[in-house]
Amino acid sequence: MSIAKRIETVIAGSSWIRRMFEEGSELKKKYGAQNVFDFSLGNPNLPPPERFKTVLRELVDREGPDAHAYMPNTGYPDVCGAVAGHLATEQGVPVEPADVIMTCGAAGALNIAFKALLDPGDEVLTPVPCFVEYGFYAENHGGVLKTAPSRPDFQLDIEAIAAALTPKTKAVLINSPHNPTGAVYSAESLAALAECLARKSRDFNRTIYLISDEPYRKVVFDGTVVPSLFSAYPESLVATSYSKDLSIPGERIGFAAVNPRATHRKALVAGMALANRILGFVNAPALMQRAVARLQGESADIGAYQRKRDLLCAGLSAMGYEFVKPAGTFYLFPRSPIADDVQFAQALKAERVLVVPGSGFHAPGHFRIAFCVADAVIRSAMGGFENAMRKYAP
């Protein structure tokens, strides 16, 4: 074969998320889209806030001669300033425009962070379950993804993380609110993690960075507050996007931010800015940068996701499904009624209900439901969920 062996291997074992999405496309052709209940892909189904459209029209109507030109690799200075101001309020620490790098989504932010931080063989440790792409992001830059188990309620297991840290660990990557479980890590758990990382950094005589992937920060329910990473641990970075809260995933706009208290703050920013260029991103999309600068604090109707969560949880609970009710995101991660989560996902597929096996997130025995769908899809899928449960229930 003419392509790289590693890519050939990855294609052969492609992401369960994409696999189920593609299988769903075939089912929709066969049965009609209205008869297939697709919970496979975390694609926001809410429209962006109305102000998003207004801002875009104004920007296009009033654009200057350099509106679509290159800019500094970190982004427009005024955009970085707007983001820094909002982030300072959110994190409770002073953040400067120079601490912010505009990126092509959270994926771009994580990749420039890893490019700047990792030497060959360096380890990135993440709790599992975890987003499937993390392993590829680390590998892209010579790193190795290592994992540590979470507690049964999907909160951080600090002892397990401490045991998994080694002299090769360069970063710990967390995701809160969490894909695929919807967990939100508490301020107490972040403080305990920070103490652990500070201690291990001294033991290993190297800085262990804490990176938080936060694209779901604003997608939280029941008054849940996402605690500040920057207040908890100085050697930290945030990677995020506007994909989920503004419902614009296809626009690929986000940012990375370095904690202003980080020991090597300037070197980190310089390295990530360089990575933005040499990885081929060059800079984040110009129009979207200018748009989000004027949309700080705005979001889609997050209350609609809470309604969908409650509708789904009530229905599945009545059927006997076991799960931890998510505090945020638009995912539910129930336990499979049988040990083989792939087999159970196939049973649901036979009912034309598409979910992603937990094995795809390093968490066999569970499955993920992305409930960012129309309420009618959730209601219509209940019969399929019930039939699959009856097939395997003791």
Describe the structure using short key phrases.
alpha/beta; Aspartate Aminotransferase, domain 2; 394 residues; Aspartate Aminotransferase, domain 1; three-stranded antiparallel beta sheet; seven-stranded mixed beta sheet
Topology, number of strands: 12
- N-to-C SSE series? HHEHHEHEHEHEHEHEEHHHEHEEEH
CATH architectural designation of the largest domain: 3-Layer(aba) Sandwich
Low-confidence stretches: none
Could you walk me through the main structural features you see in this protein, from its secondary elements to its overall organization?
The protein is an alpha/beta fold. It has two domains: 5-48 and 301-392, Alpha-Beta Complex (Aspartate Aminotransferase, domain 1); 64-293, Aspartate Aminotransferase, domain 2 (3-Layer(aba) Sandwich), CATH 3.40.640.10. The chain contains 14 helices and twelve strands. It has helices at 5-12, 16-31, 50-61, 77-91, 105-117, 134-140, 158-164, 187-204, 229-232, 265-278, 286-293, 302-319, 341-350, 375-392, and strands at 37-38, 100-103, 123-128, 144-149, 169-175, 209-213, 236-241, 254-258, 331-332, 353-354, 356-357, 367-370. Strands 2-8-7-6-5-3-4 form a seven-stranded mixed beta sheet, with helices on both faces. Strand 6, helix 9 and strand 7 form a beta-alpha-beta unit. Helix 4 (77-91) crosses helix 11 (286-293) and helix 12 (302-319) packs parallel to helix 14. The longest helix is centred in the middle third of the chain and has 18 residues, at 187-204. It starts with a helix and ends with a helix.
